């Protein structure tokens, strides 16, 4: 079945450090891939997405490239800020009729000044 | 309101009791999803509605869980004979249609004592 595996946290960084959160997936067909973020005390919100191989999703300085050959969708940011502290979830949608988003377990990022 | 609204935000109930959790999706969104999130885990899919009908209920853990969406808008997740293991945050999301961006509510934290 479809699944998402992301690196376990917590990830602790200093401000302006480079961030990578790894995500790999298993899916049949051609899934769409997403990163969602959950800031403290807030609901899940979409951070970025990519719908086909080699697409790059980007938002708020974060980027992720859909790599079909390695079944990966790693999240990166060149210079993190304290305000980026949150839980990040990788997710996929298989795009098959009647299916919903499948999430990874989440990675907690803590950025200190 | 502008976003997905879930009520109550917190619910404490005794083991064996019946509970109902409500979700008001974004107006006009035809797809509605319920997820359950346990501590330290990613959201786990429960059920998905397209309009009034349940398009996929394969995530419901057992027959104590049931959800309805009678008019294609508000949805209610119903849990009978609650158990301590049902304690989690129950998330609702809606999207304009299947496979478009899903918007999440803040969740209902259910605690079974």
Q: Tell me the overall shape of chain B.
A: globular
Oligomer: heterodimer
Output mean pLDDT of chain A. Answer: 93
Order of helices and strands of chain B: EEEEEEEEEEE
The helix content of chain A, as a percent range, equals: under 10%
Distance between the termini of chain B: 32 Å
Q: What is the helix/strand order of chain A?
A: EEEEEEEEEEEE
Count of runs of 4 or more consecutive helical residues of chain B:
0
Key traits:
heterodimer, A: 113 residues, mainly beta, four-stranded antiparallel β-sheet, B: 113 residues, globular
Describe it.
The complex is a heterodimer of chains A (about 110) and B (about 110). Chain A has strands at about 5, 10-15, 20, 25, 30-40, 45-50, 55-60, 60-65, 75, 85-95, 100-105, 105-110. In chain A, strands 2, 5, 6, 10, 11 and 12 form a six-stranded mixed sheet that branches. A four-stranded antiparallel sheet of chain A has the order 3-9-8-7, with no helix packed on it. Chain A has no helices and twelve strands. Chain B is built from no helices and eleven strands. In chain B, strands 2, 4, 5, 6, 9, 10 and 11 form a seven-stranded mixed sheet that branches. Chain B has a four-stranded antiparallel sheet with strand order 1-3-8-7, with no helix packed on it. In chain B, a hairpin with a 6-residue loop joins β7 (about 65-70) and β8. Chains A and B meet through β6, β10 and β11 of A and β5 and β10 of B.
Give a quick rundown of the structure.
Chain A is mostly beta strands and 113 residues long. Chain A has strands at 3-6, 11-14, 19-21, 23-26, 32-38, 45-50, 56-59, 62-65, 75-77, 86-93, 102-103, 107-112.
